[in-house]
Amino acid sequence: MIKLYHFELSGNCHKVRLMLSLLGVEHEQILLDFATKEHKSSKYMKLNPFGQLPILVDGDIVVRDSHAILIYLAQRYGNENWLPTDAQSTSKVMQWLFTAANYIRQGPEFARLYHLFQIPLDVELATEKAAEVLKVFDEHLSDRQWLELNRPTIADVACFPYIALAPDGKISLDTYPNVIAWVERIKQLPGYIGMPGL
Fold this sequence. Notes:
With 198 residues, this protein is of the alpha+beta class. It is 51% helix and 9% strand. The two termini are 28 Å apart. The mean pLDDT is 95. Pfam families: GST_C, GST_N.
């Protein structure tokens, strides 16, 4: 059975839990103690030498990084609806995974880390970047329901948690109605699961 090593309050871990649930993939969740840095122990550093979560173990296969795990799950257990294989559609989906790893991380995610976990980050810069990325999202979603291809894909799953959790970083979504509507659509997907803060 698939094993997912995770931390409950991590948006990156939630992406994977959400994807597993949307796909209906049976798995075992192993919660690690973030406060005692259990994920940095030698046991888990063998699975991910960067000492980060989530980690997915599927038989002999070990996948680290939430976005790499989303790709793996979509290709192994999903179908082309979640991750298409033609070049143009793949690039459209993948660009949002890179957006999540860069703009969303440096904006809403960093602001949340600062306010919720007291991680010493430049919160003013994170707040500015959050406003920038939320504006792009709101404009992009003004004429569509999903980020790409007129259906939910791993692009939506990758971007969802830290956008939806923006209020944890003292970033209001009130002026981004299209983003709010998109968040609600994701919450209505069959198999959706929440997390603390959502």
